[in-house]
């Protein structure tokens, strides 16, 4: 029976590590996508602003920077949620192991 418990705990730990790695990878992808979208938006705004003049260019760059910052902040917030979810599973696994060790 204890071998089964150890195998189950090991499986849960492995799954938790995999979920955490996946969440971190997804968070990095979200941030990279946000930065790429922000830069693409900035390039579009710069091209348009070049046609209409220097004053409008400065305004457009400021808006693009704000949007890029918001996208990055949203991506970071989502990444934090994913990391928190992954961390919850790790605590459950640790509690399970401690409970099994204490009870035996």
Tell me what you see in this structure:
The protein has 2 helices and no strands. It has 104 residues and is mainly alpha-helical. The chain has one domain. The longest helix has 51 residues. The protein is rod-shaped and about 75 Å long. It starts with a helix and ends with a helix. 8% of the residues are buried. The model has no long low-confidence stretch (mean pLDDT 85).
Q: How would you describe this structure in keywords?
A:
104 residues; rod-shaped
Q: Report the total helices.
A: 2
Uncertain segments of ≥5 residues (pLDDT<50)?
none
SSE class: mainly alpha
Helix content: over 70%
Cα distance, first to last residue? 11 Å
Give the percentage of residues in beta strands.
under 5%
Order of helices and strands: HH
Describe the global form.
rod-shaped
| Alpha-carbon Rg, integer | 23 Å
Rounded mean pLDDT is: 85
What's the number of structural domains?
Answer: 1
- Beta strand count: 0
Largest sheet, described in full?
none
Question: Helix and strand layout, with pairings?
Answer:
Layout: H1 2-52, H2 54-103
Outline of this structure?
The protein is an all-alpha fold and 104 residues long. It has helices spanning 2-52, 54-103.
């Amino acid at each position: 029976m204890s071998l089964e418990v150890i195998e189950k705990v090991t499986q849960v730990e492995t799954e938790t590590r995999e979920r955490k790695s996946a969440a971190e990878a997804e968070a990095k992808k979200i941030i990279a996508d946000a930065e790429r979208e922000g830069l693409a938006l900035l390039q579009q705004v710069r091209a348009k602003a070049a046609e209409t003049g220097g004053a409008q260019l400065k305004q457009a760059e400021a808006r693009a920077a704000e949007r890029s910052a918001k996208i990055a902040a949203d991506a970071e917030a989502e990444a934090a949620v994913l990391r928190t979810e992954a961390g919850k599973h790790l605590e459950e696994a640790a509690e399970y192991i401690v409970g099994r060790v204490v009870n035996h």
